[in-house]
Amino acid sequence: MPITLPPHLRDEYFDFEVDLEQPAEPPTDLDVVKAMKYEKAVIEAFDIGDGEGGDGNTTPADVAAALVYKASVIAARIPVAATPAWLEAALGQINNRFDTLNNALNATNARLDVINTRLDTTDTKLEEIETTVSRVNHTTAYLFNKTVGNGEIMSFKEVPFPDGTFPTKPPNNLPWIESVTALERMTDEQIMAYHTKYCPTQRRRPTRASQITQILRKIGYV
């Protein structure tokens, strides 16, 4: 950007010997020298007067303009420090390594996305398998219990609850219904727990005898 020249001064008490021209871009050494001479000339012209520019045409604003002009020329003359070649090479290598790292991370993320998709598919299949196994266990035990009478000679098989859990395993931890007699000997709380799990949609609680009958029906006896 071109440097703004200060006003061309003519002072009745001082003869300016500095003829300013638009400095080069960037300013040359001669431009700097001219700016310094101009500043000196303006200050001397100002000092010839009463110190406030009263006896001549040079004013404090003229002095300030000369100072600003010299500072602008010097600032424009100082070259911007160039980045050393070795530093540019090092920065280039670092940037290349970052690019390589980013590409590797993107590839890894893509692989992880594929793995996550496969895991989701596997989880879905496992859930389907668990559901199928639960149904098979229920059907197998239910059909077996229909063939052993009251369970006194050959014990009943454990029939899973509708939620897939087994009566004797956590979180239920109920006694095993080995036979009709074993069920009838259970406490009211145990029978109620069995009935609640086998008949989860039944809101009204039937009598103890009715609960036993419904439980036996659920395990294949009745």
UniProtKB/TrEMBL annotation:
Database matches in Pfam families: Mug135_C (PF08593)
Residue span(s) of domain Mug135-like C-terminal: 144-221
Gene3D superfamilies found in the cross-reference section: 1.20.5.340
Record-stated family: Belongs to the UPF0612 family.
Protein name per Swiss-Prot or TrEMBL: Mug135-like C-terminal domain-containing protein
Source organism of the structure: Crucibulum laeve
